[in-house]
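Think of the structure tokens as a kind of shorthand, similar to the way a musician reads notation: each symbol stands for something richer, in this case the local conformation of the backbone. In the example below we present two proteins back to back. Begin with the first one, reading the sequence and then the tokens, and try to describe in your own words what changes along the chain.
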Amino acid sequence: MLDGSRLASYDSEGVGRWFKGLDGELGDPERLFGASDVAVSSSGLIAVVDPWQDALALFGPEGELVERLELAELWDHDPNYVAKVQTVGDDFLVVEDSGSPVFRRLGRDGRIRSSFVPRHPDGSKETRLSAHVKAASDGRLWTTDGRALLRLGDDGVADLVLGEDRRLGGLSQPMSALVGPSGRVAVLDAATRALHVFDSAGTEMFVATPEPGDFEGNVGERKLAGAFDGRFFVQTMAHDAGWMEYGAGGERRGPIDLKGSSCFETLFVTFSPEGEPWVQCIEDHESAALRGRDHEEVGRIARRLDRRWFEDLAALAVAPSGGIAALERMPFTIDGPPYCGGRGAVVSLFSSNATPIGQITLSNTHEGDSIAYSGGWVAVSSSEANAVWLVQTSTGRLLRLAQPEGWLAALGFSPDGRELWLVMPQDQTLLKYALP
């Protein structure tokens, strides 16, 4: 085992047999100042990998150096952070990981015999598959996605599944959710990457299924967007560059770019009642660009009604009338109320052409996470306060709804604006509240 900067050997009772320092003089072949992993082959060779020197050092049973393999000289490309090693018989299995892990099976001479990326039987990739690859005594490789054991073929694709396979028809690991403007509720299954769409009564209408390669890595929380005509959009890449479009009946329409060329990164996508995508760009969180189908800018939200520039835009919401509500988190400051000693939130209201028409300031305990807008009411969820705040736009009336236990993934209003809906995906529950 690796013990700090030493390679250590222990007997069956945990008593140290020998210890070998790996921090020798510069130029010493035993010097491995970045040793990160160790494995023992069936013939007794001890392999130690050093990602900083792109080296695989082989030691004998008593700690003597047998050979040092310089991977950069043996491969047809420069190694990119090889930090993990295990043995498969007398071969070595290393992981080259510069963000997307690739497994390299090496012969005794350190040359690459094969390469693969662990995949589900349908060919799709998932980061957790790469995190758990282990070799069995027969030399076959196994891994898990947290639900089942998967045996990998030589090409990395699972050829046997033991346990609960991914079922596209069942909602097994609900994650992101959205109350769509058409009254439909969408929930993304992190296990299958499928989008499950339910009607207002909670009956599943359809399951929109992706193709292998649509999503890379672990899904986790992904942003969702819904259009008034029933279409849904799912963020497919962690850096927000790509989205997948599904039709109103769940048919896969393919990838779509929902950010304009001047957007550094997309934060939120909403849709006008006419179907135009409105995209909030990062731009230091200080403004929201509203862009049409061809990415042309049709409006920009940058100032509140009091003419102050935005400092930290967090989210947008669109009412059925086309009006826009923008949630801004306020910075920590001691300039006096209402922000003294805390971090508050401001909700700014705009017409459909981005003209400011209203402003609602919440106290410093009401920092918001997400927002919904019906025209007559604004709802702001606050994980900090464990509550949902409701504001009647015509009167400024403020109501506090204690958030139920569990994870609130989405909030929104019914199409007629008479109910507040909360989506609790892990409980697979849609909660409805009648508005006064």
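Once you have a description of the first chain, move to the second and do the same.
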Amino acid sequence: MRSSAIVSTVLALVLGLLTLGTSTALLYSICIGTVGPADQVQMSMLAVFGICGLGFATLSGYLVGLVARRAPIAHAVALSLMLIAIWVTATSWNTTVLGGSGRSLVAALNIAIALTGTMVGGWLRSTQTQA
């Protein structure tokens, strides 16, 4: 019984990361490809990215709670902590290896939107299971 709970938790977290990462990457590649270079992205496109990112993150948080089958908010918190760890790693990699500034407003907004959406998705799944 214990091993099936661990497997479902790991599967839920991997599914959440894949859903959020893949959908966001596809959105960015499609929209950036049609708009032009990344430095020419307009504020309206950033708003579209934010709204879609919030939807993808909410879906990811919901799916994590659905697949894990128990404690959806705890699993959404775990996914959020994984997102923070990935964001810190990517930011430090950008700063040390690639020579970037490490202070990107867009990156900070991305993680804030992802964390908010993930927790909302977990909360939605929690309220659905309690009803």
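Compare your description with these statements about the second chain. Residues 5 and 127 are 21 Å apart (CA to CA).
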